[in-house]
Amino acid sequence: MSDGTPLRSLHQTSPGTSLPYHELRKNLRDRSVSSSPRKSLTNERGTTANHRVSMPLARGDGDGDAISSPERRPAPGVSTHNLVGFWILGLCNNFAYVVMLSAAKDILETESGSGTMNVTHACREKIVDRQCQELSTGAVLLADIIPALVVKVTAPLYIQMIPFGLRHLLVVVAQMLSFILVGSSSSVSMALLGVVVASWGSGLGEISYLALASYFDAKVISMWSSGTGGAGIIGAMAYAILTDPLMLHFSPQAALYSMLIIPMIFAYTYWYLLELPPGVHRVRACDPKTYLVPSNSDYVIRVRQVSGSDNESEIERPLLDGDEENEDDNITSASPRHQRLLSMYERLGATIPLFKYMLPLIVVYFAEYFINQGLLELLEFDCSHGFNLGPESQYRWYQVLYQIGVFVSRSSSDIIALPGKVLPLLALMQVFNAVLLYFEALDSFISHIFILMFIIVYEGLLGGASYVNTYRVVHTEIPPERKEFSMGFVSISDTFGILLAGFTAIPAHNIICKQPL
């Protein structure tokens, strides 16, 4: 907010009067007003109290009075801390999910008696038959996606009542537990339970952090999506490097235990790195009343922001119980916000316009995860045509290459922004990839693994572009009062597409494995 931007309280002593920002800061320091009308705030009991403007330090939740110059103090939504913070949130939130998919073949070959996962086999000099597992990696995909889908479908109807801080705690604990369960598993069922826990945490995290992004500048969406792409490439590559016999050659268990550092980074990022804007509810551990976001607050501050023109945008921000002495009017995000709790009827009505964004994303994710978890495990090359990689190593590096494509495209939305009308075309292109690789699994007509690797990178590029541009278009086109709900609801699209892919991958695996090579 620049110098001279007027602030108006809910009830002004004289209509049309306002106090310039630089004078308000001066009066705060001097504790007196000599040249401007005094502001007041009327509460529900009819009493009037002086409107104390408190500008706490960005990452603090206390009653700090530190005030920085509006010219030098960056808006909460566009600061470097927030951009980096959302990148790390995206990275950590999707990390366990990606690792579970990269370890899918190892998980399905967990030996019930010894409690050890599969060790990588050497490449075959000549492939004369299909080496099919009894259970498709699509089963791991279902365990990795169904809990997330349940969370994403049900959460938009009640999740706004749960503070972001409490949601974050649940996500971090779930991620730690998932690594421990899978790493210590002695059976496929126990390993799949760990995958389920990872999925639940990832689903809760995605719908929460995308909703949190609605309080910030739109640039954090690009950083979030880039972080999720980074989770793919870093998670898949870390697991491949740690377990590959030509590299570090860790056991799958040791590789999973080493990844417990990720939840620690996750916790630090939200509670210490991110600069939360004033409209976000804070949880105080010693105050149980803050454990839920109140649906009706005692006060509403109306802040009018004039941005160099006569047009005024109204922002409503409910004040939380007991926050009268800690009000923060420094709402300086790049664009006006009007965040409020929607009624159940409003939420249901807001879903209908979102389907035009959701359907292309569903198709894209169905096609690419049908490839990744239904077909790639069946695409094996011999030593001379597969860089001397064993079948398990080939599968792991397929996952890495896919994630590289996702990362590149998700990180490029600020450079190449696609309009909404292009999204259905991306879906058709991804379906073509799925059909091509289905016939490759049947007939093995691709001559070298390098060609397949190129196709997999291209597949990732399409998927990442569809993801980031869908959310960018929603963030741009949806009205501010429905933006938080819409961002969260659209996030079920990719999950639903992946769910369909998991159910389709299992019978496709069985059909292909019954065919002679």
From TrEMBL:
Protein name, as recorded: Battenin
Compositional bias segments (type: Basic and acidic residues): 22-32
Region spans: Disordered: 1-74, 309-335
Bias-annotated ranges (Acidic residues): 321-330
Similarity comment text for this entry: Belongs to the battenin family.
Source domain of life: Eukaryota
Subcellular location: Endomembrane system; Lysosome membrane
GO biological process: lysosome organization; regulation of intracellular pH
Keyword Cell cycle recorded: no
GO CC, alphabetical: endomembrane system; lysosomal membrane
Parts of the chain that traverse the membrane: 84-104, 169-201, 221-242, 254-273, 354-371, 422-439, 445-468, 489-512
Keyword terms, alphabetized: Lysosome, Membrane, Transmembrane, Transmembrane helix, Transport
Biased composition (Polar residues): 33-51
Membrane-topology annotation of the record: Multi-pass membrane protein
InterPro entries: Battenin_disease_Cln3, Battenin_disease_Cln3_subgr, MFS_trans_sf
Chief location category: membrane
Matches recorded under Pfam families: CLN3
Entry keyword Transmembrane: yes
The organism of origin for this protein: Cylicocyclus nassatus
